[in-house]
Amino acid sequence: MLDIAFDQVIVRKNTSCLKWDGVGERFGDHELLPMWVADMDFPSPPSITAALEARIKHPVFGYTSPSKELYDSITLWMEKRHNWYIEKSWIQFSAGVVSALGTCIQALTEHGDRILVQSPVYAPFFNMVTRNNRTLVNNELVLENGRYVIDFEDFEEKLKSGVKLFLLCSPHNPGGRVWTRDELETIGELCRRHNVIIISDEIHADLALAPNRHIPIASLSPEMADITITAMAPSKTFNIAGLQASIVISQNEELMRKFNDVHDRRGFDGLNIFALTAMEAAYTGGSDWLDSIAAYIKENAEYANSFIKRELPAISCMMPEASFLLWMNCRNLHLSDTELNEMLTKKGKLALDPGTKYGPGGEGFVRMNIGCPRELLADGLNRLKTALT
Predict the structure, then answer these.
(1) Which terminus of the chain has a lower count of CB atoms within 10 Å, N or C?
(2) Is the pLDDT of residue 1 over 50?
(3) CB-hemisphere CA count at 13 Å for 259?
(4) Which residues does the UniProt record annotate as the domain Aminotransferase class I/classII large (predicted)?
(5) Is there a contact between 129 and 185 (Cβ–Cβ < 8 Å)?
(6) Do 120 and 39 share a structural domain?
């Protein structure tokens, strides 16, 4: 691992940063400590900044296209990190995973078609379904011994109702679950049985925390891969969300033809030159940095959980198996969601994502972004204590 000082606090205010500069508009108070939107407060890997600096020294920024080296870096990354062997022809690019979800919905379903999600889940899952005039169907996750599990009986019943697409969040956001091989195989078997296409959002895949290992659902078998489109990105992993670069992968030529047709009709003509440069640098030179940051995030999660057990025993944390998001159960405080959020913002001066944002099952929860230096995490936890005691 690299010897990197992740404890350094970097000032992000006045950089047009959504997380810090947008907190006033989002929460009504510019002085809140922002621990909401999912980007980290760590510098991106040296390999990325060095590559961008080198590219910017060339004074011409004209039209560009993905290089062979970029494709090679992606296929090698999937092989080494996820034991997933993909081909260049399976890869397409998108500005972001959310826009990829929207493109998939437009390409593979019609108005009114039924699309299945599993709440509580990342809010754009709902928005992309309803804003594209499709019918939202929900298989709510079950809270069991402090972690989420899938109600497969209900899952299959919902599939039988005429569902065309299933939007899988893997690893899960906000709960941080890394789905097991058995769970993924059951999902795939049921979707194949009922002719349902899987769109798998795996944006947090690279941030599985040891000893957990992410498994791309499309990697399980050729049959599984044939019904799946996978969306991944270096954005969360390497903290480059502002560069807007993601990857869409599927071996199914017909699914990708339909996806690309919508891409073309929307005028998408590829990623910008800096997104391509950063993506290649991330996948070729970011491995050691990622190992280091994942270890630091795991320590942050343990630090936060220990603090909350000691200082706020009425709250329980769903320890993340992946990513830098802490899903906290505040139901034993017996507060309404409005009361809970007002106490956090007005008394604690702390901005967290309310659980209601993530749909049914999110009531009484809040999501804290712990992808930050320990000093900021400690400040946030103390504000949480001030708010709720």
Answers:
(1) C
(2) no
(3) 26
(4) 43-384
(5) no
(6) no
Please check whether residue 249 lies inside any domain of the structure. Answer: yes
Question: Is residue 147 domain-shared with residue 214, that is, in the same domain?
Answer: yes
Domain count, the chain: 2
Dump pLDDT digits (tens) for 206-222.
Answer: 999 999 999 999 999 99
Domain boundary among 256, 285, 314: 285
Q: Is 246 part of any domain?
A: yes
* 103-126 tens-digit pLDDT: 999 999 999 999 999 999 999 999
Q: Are residues 104 and 212 in the same domain?
A: yes
Task: Provide the token pair at 352.
Answer: 């967290």
30 and 92 within one domain = no
CA distance 236 to 230: 16
pLDDT at 4: 65
HSE, side-chain direction, 13 A CA sphere, residue 253: 1
**Per-residue confidence band for 5, with pLDDT thresholds at 50, 70 and 90:** confident
> Are residues 222 and 239 both part of a single domain?
yes
Closest listed residue to residue 296, CA positions, set 214, 209, 234: 209
Last residue of a domain, one of 285, 311, 338: 285
Tens digit of pLDDT for each residue in 130-151? Answer: 999 999 999 999 999 999 999 9
Q: State the residue range of the domain holding 293.
A: 18-45+288-388
Alpha-carbon torsion, ordered 149, 153, 158, 160, to 10 deg = 140
Q: ω into residue 174 within 30 of 0, thus cis?
A: yes
Same-domain check for residues 311 and 281: no
CATH of the domain at 347: 3.90.1150.10
The predicted pLDDT at position 27 comes to 94
pLDDT interval class at 269 (50, 70, 90): confident
Cis peptide before 46 (omega within 30 of 0): no
Same domain for 90 and 217? yes
**Contact at 8 Å (CB) between 105 and 128?**
yes
On whether the CB atoms of residues 227 and 197 are closer than 8 A, the answer is: yes
H or E segment at 169?
A: strand 163-169
